Amino acid sequence: MNDKETWKAVDAYFDEKLHISDETTEAIKEKNDTEELPAIEVASTHGKMLYLMAKMRNANTILEIGTHGGYSTVWLARALPEGGQMATLEADEKHARVAEENINAAGYGDVVHVVQGTALDTLPSLMEKGYRHFDFIFIDANKENYPEYLKWALEFSKSGAVIVADNVVRNGRIIDGDTEEKQIPYLREFIDILSEDDRIEATAVQTVGVKGYDGFLLGIVK
Ligand code: SAH
Ligand code: DHB
Ligand code: MG
């Protein structure tokens, strides 16, 4: 097996052994596929990781920026205790519609608030909707706005808030200042802001698996 085949097979091994995917999560991936959404959901192993992290944090309120079809949303919603709430932001109308359907089918329609619109437009309205702080924030929308999303995440954080951002490695291109990948300079700016902001302690975790070589940024607000 080459590296990529091995990464995939190891993800499948853990998915099976640790009982990660179930009917609900598989139905979401299938619907996303049928509706022709791009296959860019987090891996099942990482969906469960997000769920476990939110549980470890005892998160009562969760914010997700970048809903897609609601796959990561449902993983995160599962971590909420009775009375918990989640807001998830999605610019694309079709993605938001598919997400609503998936989230309702999974039984989280009352817990998750899908907010359709460009996140930079809808983030300010969350305060009006009654959200003051989030215990757990997952950033996974367009990479160009990661620097702005980080500022908003900090705005919505109290001490102990956990901030996770997806796709900060991109096959190693994060360290290539000259890459053709247009998003990289914004991801590097996002890291530079973290580098200079002493309100947050952070690390980065490189990952391989079904989605190739990438990684997460993981931080906690002091
Ligand atoms: N978190 C999802 C995947 C998100 S993919 C999962 O793991 O299942 C990124 C999503 O961000 C896409 O659905 C895309 O439409 C959305 N997006 C792109 N630009 C956006 C913006 N400016 N505001 C909100 N969402 C945006
Ligand atoms: C891609 C992967 C992601 O996890 C994402 O959020 C956006 C794009 C990709 O592989 O293109
Ligand atoms: Mg992602």
Question: What would a concise description of this structure say?
Answer:
By secondary structure, the chain is α/β, with parallel strands linked by helices. The protein has one domain (3-221): Vaccinia Virus protein VP39 (Rossmann fold), CATH 3.40.50.150.
Describe this structure in words.
The protein is about 40% helix and about 20% strand. The protein is globular, with a radius of gyration of 17 Å. Helix 3 (about 45-55) runs parallel beside helix 4. The chain has one domain (about 5-220): 3-Layer(aba) Sandwich (Rossmann fold). The model has no long low-confidence stretch (mean pLDDT about 95). It has a seven-stranded mixed sheet with strand order 3-2-1-4-5-7-6, sandwiched between helices. The protein has helices spanning about 5-15, 25-35, 45-55, 70-75, 95-105, 120-130, 145-155, 185-195; strands spanning about 60-65, 85-90, 110-115, 135-140, 160-165, 200-210, 210-220. With about 220 residues, it is α/β, with parallel strands linked by helices. The structure holds S-adenosyl-L-homocysteine (SAH), 3,4-dihydroxybenzoic acid and magnesium ion. S-adenosyl-L-homocysteine binds near residues 71, 89, 91 and 140. 3,4-dihydroxybenzoic acid binds near residues 40, 140, 166 and 167.
